[in-house]
Amino acid sequence: MSQDLTGKLLIAMPGMGDPRFDRSVVYICAYSDEGTMGLIVNKRVPDITLDDLLDQLEIGVGTGSAGVGVHFGGPVEGGRGFVLHSQDYPGTEGTLSVTSTISMTATKDILVDIAKGAGPEQALTALGYAGWGPGQLEDEIQQNAWLTADADNAIVFDPDNDAKWTRALGHLGIDPLLLSAEGGRA
């Protein structure tokens, strides 16, 4: 295993073979020899709001959830929910502290707190996740499918999903118009 990618962003390169990841920005929540788990932070699940999700889970819709969208976290376990959030929310034993500024919680209690307006200051709710087996992500990075960048909370939690891919590339000093779908070897 090379560098630890926990808490980093993966930025899909043009020409990504998998349309589910086209122009995706993925926040890496867990990275180890056993594999990698992340959440796509710039794609919405069409026609599903957080209020819809709360209603389906029989949690009262509240002030903290009005008009909030739900993200497509990735193609694995699409019915499973995750909340990526700022560290100001203490969470429970189901909360994974990813970095000093971002945690991930996969338990219902955070949704109850969000509905009540008592949730984290910044939160992104996602259904499903992106997962890679041992060595798979490293191979994809070597094949120029992904760029990696330090995560920036302003990008991760930005409500403008359409701008996240361009902003993440800009964080690396890269103009997306100059990117080619073809990788090269010197």
Distance between the termini: 24 Å
Total strands = 10
Q: Largest sheet, if any?
A: 10 strands, mixed
Determine the mean pLDDT. Answer: 88
The domain count comes to: 1
- Sketch the topology as an H/E string, one letter per element: EEEEHEEEEHEHEHH
* Unreliable residue runs: none
Approximate shape:
globular
Q: At the first level of CATH, what is the class?
A: Alpha Beta
Task: Name the helicity range.
Answer: 10-25%
The CATH homologous superfamily corresponds to VC0467-like
Which architecture name does CATH use? 3-Layer(aba) Sandwich
Description of the structure:
The structure is a single chain. The chain has one domain: 3-Layer(aba) Sandwich (VC0467-like). It contains five helices and ten strands. Strand 2 and strand 3 form a beta hairpin. It starts with 7 loop residues before the first strand and ends in a 15-residue tail after the last helix. The chain is of the alpha+beta class and 186 residues long. The model has no long low-confidence stretch (mean pLDDT 88). Strands 1, 2, 3, 4, 5, 6, 7, 8, 9 and 10 form a ten-stranded mixed beta sheet that branches.
